[in-house]
Design brief:
By secondary structure, this protein is mainly beta. It contains four helices and 26 strands.
């Protein structure tokens, strides 16, 4: 009995190792979508725009589960930049700086998490995990900027800051949607001859390459090659955004959803998606159907409103969606109308994404997306392009991603109610099996012995 138990444990361990290998994000076959990539002739540094079918497979909130692999399975260096669009209108906005308190080196500790707290009306950011090394005394390690409501891409950031004179300080800007996983956006070393000098060598604006910061926080931290002779303080930051006029969002059709009734449609994808919008084209001859869209991540959760609009026959315009990732969606038609006579045609739209990739490996290349365990491997744009300036990405050659023809349709998962019913059936089966086994044990213990 003991030997059989050990064999079962060993088999389970081997199965676990095999599963980990199959889901290893360092391997191309661990990703849900893999598309061939053809670099353009010319320099190895090129821009690449993932199509909608690749964006729909992303599961990480910061879109970090995307890679470009070469023929040997090695991931190529890349950075994420703002996608090209139409003309841009430059705007500025001021963001309050919230101090980040913690022990020395805590921001460089893997897994460090930030928590925003309020004290007497003032807000500060506290580290929830202390650094492994560093001073025990708390210190201001950086500042947090709430940029979640900034819709347009950010070109640059200017700090209202003071730091010790005649000491170079490297200011590093990062972005995160969950205050735990951070994407590098840009950095700049600044120097002042006197503490109150208005100018700084190299300029005071930190170039962010038109970074997407919507639904994200910005973090600014600083380092110096030598011990600082005084404190660094940042009171606020001014960002310059580029409002794009024109530019299309990648779209992908989804399979025909389930029509619960004329006024309600249900569909899900099995993993969380963050679409920028949805286009609803009635297929039953309806001319105007006002709708509301909701999302949730399971039948045990309440529906969260994401957006509202009007479906207008073939001329339907996309309805913008706001909110985090959801696995299940519901479209509710206005009860003042007859609803949908037939399931409408649905297209999901995603915020465009542009990568700058260094094609330094061995062809052929493949774009891979959709591996939830993948770590963030984006580089800052100025790490890939020396002496980076705005507009440098636009002149790079464009690599081509080959999408299957006809274009794929996004498959749907079973409805959340179906998944809940399956779980209930499994639980009832296990319960009945357990009761039966218990009854047999009781009967064996209490059955009368044979007469002597």
């Amino acid at each position: 009995m003991i030997r059989w138990t050990m064999l079962m444990i060993a088999a389970a361990a081997l199965a676990g190792c095999s599963e980990r290998d199959a889901h290893n994000p360092a391997r191309p076959d661990a990703y849900a979508v893999r598309l061939p990539v053809d670099p353009a002739p010319g320099a190895p540094l090129q821009r690449l725009s993932p199509p909608a079918v690749a964006l729909a497979a992303l599961t990480a909130p910061d879109r970090s589960d995307i890679r470009v692999f070469d023929a040997t399975g090695a991931a190529l260096p890349m950075a994420a930049t703002a996608p090209p669009g139409g003309a841009a209108i430059l705007r500025t906005a001021t963001l309050e700086a919230l101090p980040i308190l913690g022990t020395g080196g805590a921001l460089r500790t893997n897994g460090a998490e930030l928590v925003i707290e309020a004290f007497g009306g003032a807000r500060v950011v506290r580290m929830t995990e202390a650094a492994q090394n560093g001073d025990a005394a708390p210190a201001v390690l950086g500042v947090l900027l709430d940029s979640r409501k900034v819709d347009d891409p950010v070109r640059s950031l200017r700090l209202d800051a003071r730091w010790p004179a005649q000491q170079p300080v490297n200011f590093i800007v990062e972005a995160s949607g969950d205050l735990r996983h951070w994407i590098p956006l840009g950095a700049r070393i600044l120097y002042r001859k006197t503490a109150d000098a208005t100018g700084a060598i190299g300029g005071e604006e930190i170039d962010l390459g038109e970074a997407d910061v919507h639904r994200r926080y910005l973090r600014v931290r600083w380092t110096s090659p030598s011990k600082l002779l005084g404190a660094v303080t940042v009171s606020r930051a001014t960002i310059t955004t580029a409002h794009r006029i024109g530019g299309d969002r990648p779209a992908i059709a989804i399979a025909t959803p389930r029509r619960a009734n004329a006024h309600e449609l249900r569909f899900g994808f099995g993993h969380g998606l963050v679409p920028a919008g949805i286009r609803i084209a009635p297929a039953g001859g309806e001319m105007i159907v006002p709708v509301r869209i909701f999302g949730r991540n399971g039948a045990d959760q309440d529906w969260t409103p994401l957006g509202a609009g009007v479906a207008r026959g073939a001329a339907s315009k996309p309805i913008r969606l706001e909110g985090p990732a959801f696995a299940d969606y519901r479209i509710e038609a206005d009860r003042r109308t007859a609803g949908f006579a037939a399931p409408p045609k649905l297209d999901l739209l995603f915020e465009p994404m542009q990568l700058v990739v260094l094609f330094s490996g061995k062809p052929p290349y493949v774009l891979a997306t959709g591996a939830g365990a993948a770590e963030n491997r984006f580089l800052a744009i100025d790490e890939l392009i020396p002496d980076y300036r705005p507009g440098a990405v636009a002149v790079l050659p464009a690599a081509t991603v080959r999408v299957p023809v006809p274009e794929p349709v996004l498959a749907l998962a079973s409805g959340d109610e179906d998944r809940l019913s399956q779980r209930k059936a499994l639980l009832w089966s296990l319960l009945l099996l357990g009761v039966t086994a218990l009854a047999l044990m009781v009967w064996k213990l209490w059955k009368p012995g044979k007469a002597g």
